[in-house]
Amino acid sequence: MTAQDTIDQLHLLPHPEGGYFRETYRSADSLTTNSGQHRSVSTAIYYLLENEDKSHLHRIKSDELWFFHQGQALEIVCIADGQPTTIVLGPDFSRGEVPQAVVPAHTWFAARLQSQTGYALVSCTVAPGFDFADFELAQRAALSAEFPHLAGLIEQFTKA
């Protein structure tokens, strides 16, 4: 199965941060966050990155769990407390790849295929549920000013 076959079969659409997605679940139950926002208890999406596609640096106000399904290993790059870390989501546990990972709320993060060829299909679950009002796409100049020691990394994962 090719990336395009997967995109077609799962009815994926282009995602604003890069790659393709489709929401597959939105809880009928809702809650009020500590900041007074009303959100679904949880949401889930399929998410696919292909070849040199990237999920550009962004952050959300909820925890996000990533689950590997098929394809090539995927790097999730996080910036927490001014330090970069990388989680490799994939099927090869002997190489340190993991089948699931958590990105804590308010953490800057991005993703790309480790090999930059092929594709990776994952699912992402957000709790409290995802809302675009809670989504912030990084601005290269502002993030580089905040973390000048990470300027090269930030340039790789932001739009000009």
Automatic annotation (TrEMBL):
Report the residue ranges that make up the DUF985 domain in this protein: 4-138
Q: Which domain of life is it from?
A: Bacteria
**PANTHER family, A to Z:** DUF985 DOMAIN-CONTAINING PROTEIN, RMLC-LIKE JELLY ROLL FOLD PROTEIN
The protein's name is Cupin domain-containing protein
Its source organism is Hymenobacter nitidus
Name the lineage.
Bacteria, Pseudomonadati, Bacteroidota, Cytophagia, Cytophagales
